[in-house]
Input
Amino acid sequence: MTIDETFRELKKRKEGALIAFITGGDPTPKYTPKLIEALIDGGVDMLEIGVPFSDPIADGPTIQAANYRSLNANTTPHIIFDIVRESKKRIDVPIALLTYYNILFKMGVKNFLEGASRHCVDGLIIPDLPIEEAEEYRETAEINGIDTIFLATPSTSIDRLKDILGFVSGFIYLVSVFGVTGARDRVSQLTKRTIRRFHSYTVKSVPLAVGFGISKPDHVSSVIGCGAEGAITGSAFVKIIEDNLDKPNRMVEEIRALAKKLKTATLWKVVEA
Output
């Protein structure tokens, strides 16, 4: 099932999408397939897998540490590709990769995207690639059937948002807060206002998914209630991995349990005032 098909199916069921992020290869590549299955068992609708990078500038301490654990385990983009392809033999949910442009540049944009396509990757998120430099990437991704997911922030103007929407497929990723990834106590009023401000524009083109700081069921219900079609949770899952490095069974169970709690909060409700 593609990203677009998943959002359309969830809309019929009056549900928002729960999108889970983990870093591929954290703590070692053998764990990632087990964690993917636990997330799907818990009800996650889409997966975002991070390709480990030495300088993950968009990430806070929790996900930075996950990148370093993965790199220390010798995880490479090709290993991530293999994990995605093997996982897609057992699960029918979209998988997007989050990576930094240096990785594509080193491998070659065409080679990376062709490899990703052969390994059943559905979409790509590249936080450090501005749309002004993304034409070659977008065209090659489209040829290979890969969605191009770009980011917007609370400071993004409507004119800029319209420009970004001209490049996006799959969904647009709203960074809910200024700064880096990491769990927060609550969803800010700024985030809620931004969702409402953007939604009348995004609803005409692609779904709007909100990430950064989304770690609790009330966070999920809040962003869905304001009009977002998806909620993205990463650091909360990655922290479970970090806290259970020597307890793999507990790690899997806690990942599954958190996914279940978050998924229950994705049912559509009356939009918040």
Q: What stands out?
A: Residues 248-263 form the longest helix (16 residues). The chain has a mean pLDDT of 93.
